[in-house]
Amino acid sequence: MNHLLFEHNLFANFLDLDELKHALFGVFLTADKLDNELQDLFGGDLVNA
């Protein structure tokens, strides 16, 4: 089975809660948008489909 991993790197030494929330929200929104676009291009199944 093939998987697509989307990740983001943060500097944890200087990370506060608001920065973490912002980064997670950005990853969630980007992944939510890209999963449909990539499925249209390459096919396959979505995890929640």
Task: Write a structural description.
By secondary structure, the chain is an all-alpha fold. The protein has a domain at 17-41. Helices cover 53% and strands 0% of the residues. The protein has one helix and no strands. The longest helix has 26 residues, at 17-42. The model has no long low-confidence stretch (mean pLDDT 83).
- Give me the number of helical elements: 1
Amount of helix: 40-55%
Cα-atom Rg, whole angstroms? 14 Å
Mean pLDDT over the full residue set = 83
Which structural class is indicated by helix and strand composition?
A: mainly alpha
Q: Strand content of the residues, in percent?
A: under 5%
* Uncertain residue segments: none
Number of strands: 0
Task: Please outline the major beta sheet.
Answer: none
Assembly state here? Answer: single chain
> What is the N-to-C succession of helices and strands?
H
Spatial gap, N to C terminus: 16 Å
Globular, elongated, flat, extended or rod-shaped: what is the shape?
elongated
